[in-house]
Input
Amino acid sequence: MTTGRLEAFSDGVLAIIITIMVLEVKVPHGSDLHALRPVVPVFLSYLLSFVYVGIYWNNHHHLFHATKETSGGVMWANLALLFCLSLIPVTTAWVGDNSEAPWPAALYGVLLLLCGFAYWVLERTIIAHEGTRSELARAVGRRIKERVSIVGYAVGIALAFIHPWLAQLAYAGVALAWIVPDRRIEAVLRAG
Amino acid sequence: MTTGRLEAFSDGVLAIIITIMVLEVKVPHGSDLHALRPVVPVFLSYLLSFVYVGIYWNNHHHLFHATKETSGGVMWANLALLFCLSLIPVTTAWVGDNSEAPWPAALYGVLLLLCGFAYWVLERTIIAHEGTRSELARAVGRRIKERVSIVGYAVGIALAFIHPWLAQLAYAGVALAWIVPDRRIEAVLRAG
Amino acid sequence: MTTGRLEAFSDGVLAIIITIMVLEVKVPHGSDLHALRPVVPVFLSYLLSFVYVGIYWNNHHHLFHATKETSGGVMWANLALLFCLSLIPVTTAWVGDNSEAPWPAALYGVLLLLCGFAYWVLERTIIAHEGTRSELARAVGRRIKERVSIVGYAVGIALAFIHPWLAQLAYAGVALAWIVPDRRIEAVLRAG
Amino acid sequence: MTTGRLEAFSDGVLAIIITIMVLEVKVPHGSDLHALRPVVPVFLSYLLSFVYVGIYWNNHHHLFHATKETSGGVMWANLALLFCLSLIPVTTAWVGDNSEAPWPAALYGVLLLLCGFAYWVLERTIIAHEGTRSELARAVGRRIKERVSIVGYAVGIALAFIHPWLAQLAYAGVALAWIVPDRRIEAVLRAG
Output
């Protein structure tokens, strides 16, 4: 069974998740520039989540580009990832509404960890189905960025209880590491 | 007429249904962990419905994988199935808001029965169009899981009036039977 | 330029329109069967609109099946049709909230007329681009069903001011004429 | 890496953006024609934004029609454009709710400028990846319409502080320039 329809369905779900979040950016009450001020933290939460869903779409795209066929297990691992990602909009809205509180910022980090774990399970499931000599198994490599991300999320969760904005900075840092093209990072790490 | 666009349209509708439900998971009022408690039953209802829509997408995928071409009848049978599935989010929200009441839990079971019936009609319509010697007609087989599901839904509807959570357990059990790969179940049933 | 992406985009928009309407079916207040009663007219409005969007998707599918390539004009005519169809959910909700009032029922009929007109413009634009000897131009034929529909909508709009439910019956009758497979209707008309 | 899935994802996001706006057109309170009056400015804002998203989809379609392959940079430039476009529904709703206020109308123009800038960055990124001798680089040409649009947006932003409806007229004028087929405009400009 080919991956075409699984990719199309995932694209649909990810497209909805990424755009549903904008529904949480409420229309400002009032008609002047001051009315925009309470929207700013919601907007920043939305921007970060948009980038994260973008990163997952990007990686999902690469993952299935290197995948030849699907199985029942791959489908369910993919649905589990989509489920975790579908919780991002409501968690983002909770963070946006309570930008000075520690728990929403910490839970956001836990959700990011969960999404990362679900992605790792999906990757493992595909490799288990395609074999360790497959194109994907070789492409995955040493997974330095994944390990750095876990540390980043954990640091963010801890920082949330000092100040929630520090947690957001940690999450934004991890996101930045994924946006920067892979080759450069790898070159930096090799030089290091 | 090929099935490509029918599959793409169904993927779109199913992707929206599965992600629309998360809009029902309201942003918690309050900024600490206690604020999450009233969200828990809504979240569990959402999880179960996510799994059910996932099962239907999975089966829909397999169904049209074995289908060569469509007709007007197949299109309308497909739309009837999508209509039944599109009622899952609002019913899920009703269950989540009234997790201790019998009627929402019972109606959820009736809706699952209705979706199962619509799926069966779609399958029959395709086989009627493609002929009883088609790949699909042979693949459908003895339909043991379908019969067990109907019993499971009926038991769930009855249990709803004892305690709604027992109904949810029955529905979750049916869902589990569909997630576990077919071959193993069939092997178990043959051995039994 | 091929029609692939125009069809994919239209499928996306139509899938969203058809599922967005279910958001208008509000979660019932209360946990017993009586709580479902005020939902009934909203549900019936939703069912009728679901069928209409289904009919348009079906016809759109057939239309572009017979179309070889697109132009700027075809794209804008298609967007105009999608715009008209995108007004169905809010009009449906207005009808559902005011099921005993004449104006919503009449406006619903005006919108159906508008959608029919936009579809006709799209058909004309494609034929103008592909030539009157194209497959599509021959397939369109005498357009008996289209003419009957216009009469049905007009009768419905007039009936709305006697009783809004009579208008809904007229619109439902037109919908039924489109669901029934073409060949049978044509055979009936030829025999008549 | 081919552009297929990037186009499918973008189509999904654009389809959601264009239909999400209709959710902002609230169901009128009341059941007669007078109830429609407050909906009129919201409806006009929606119409203009629908046309703008339609223009971007149209141009996006042409852009990737002339693009052979994607890179990480192209993906992120595309996501940046989608992010800007995803802000159109909430800004449209703000304009619709405050149709007599200058700031919403001005901000709408700033957003249009931002979307135009994001589109230009995407175009540059693709050309940088494909080479200045690529089909796309030659197709882009002198970019007269883009320059006229920037002037139009700037004039609109300034006019917003005289009267917001003048701003909307300026934006509508720019939109009109993009709907009219290219060749005619170019012919007019050459003759001029």
In short: Chain D is about 75% helix and 0% strand. The mean pLDDT of chain D is 85.
